[in-house]
Amino acid sequence: MNESTRTDNLNTEPERRIIWTPPSEEEKRKGRKQFALILSASIALSLILAAFNVYAAYITSDLTIQIDSKIAPCRTRLDTVGEVLKDVGFKVGEHDIVEPALSAHVDDSTEIRVKRVRIEEEQEREKTGFETIEEDDPEMNRGESKVTQEGAQGEDLVTYRVTYTSDVETAREEIGRKTLKKPVDEIVHVGIRETINGFAYTRKEVFEATAYTGGGRTASGTRARVGEIAVDPRVIPLGTTVYVEGFGELRAEDTGGAVKGHIIDIYMSSRSQCRKWGRRNVTVYLP
Prior knowledge:
This protein is an alpha+beta fold. It has three domains: 61-115, Roll (Ubiquitin-like (UB roll)); 120-190, Resuscitation-promoting factor rpfb fold (Single Sheet), CATH 2.20.230; 197-286, Beta Barrel (Barwin-like endoglucanases), CATH 2.40.40.10. Helices cover 20% and strands 44% of the residues. The chain has helices spanning 3-11, 25-59, 81-87, 271-277; strands at residues 61-67, 70-76, 97-99, 111-115, 117-128, 132-141, 145-149, 154-165, 168-181, 186-196, 199-201, 203-212, 228-230, 241-244, 248-254, 263-267, 280-286. It has a six-stranded mixed beta barrel. The chain is rod-shaped.
């Protein structure tokens, strides 16, 4: 064998072979044990997942939420109305109306209804009416009238507390009022004058009438005569001309101790006339 041949043999790697050795009985027992453990763990995990899915389905509620006019379905595992609303991001206001109550429990039949309520203060300018005042005018005939002062509306600044439910006004309460402009009353003169046989009068009343005679001086200092009467000055002032039913125009010039209130004493020319007249009621027309 030469030198080169020896060198080649030294550089040549030995051949590798894989030899399978059957597992021992101990190794087989360990393998079976590990497989059983893995199988048991898999089965247990599957059972746990199945149970969780059943439980999750059981505790989940499918319900609806209506906020004002908007309705939306909702699936939740939460327990109360308040928790559900908080979970969906809705903040319940102080005056909001919630049905059922926030503490109520929810289930598949629950319909949560929320009506948002807001209360605002609003100010408005409002016109105020004026009064019409009628004043009797003896210089105008009955049935006639004349506006002597035009009426004018006033203006108030009114503050209201207004309640809106679901953006609809449901209540309005006045809480303040300030007068900006006072109204001006309208004044109307109303005619009250009428005539009877050419005598203008404004009112007529029933008096008890007696009669007297005998001459002398009246309380006004004039001569007692036919055409004058005695009166109570508190009812008919002295110097007033009246129209007495059945006599015509008579002038109040005298008084008398028995002439009080709605009594007149008519002067007549003789005692026989006075006796014939006696005492009776008459209508007296006053200017």
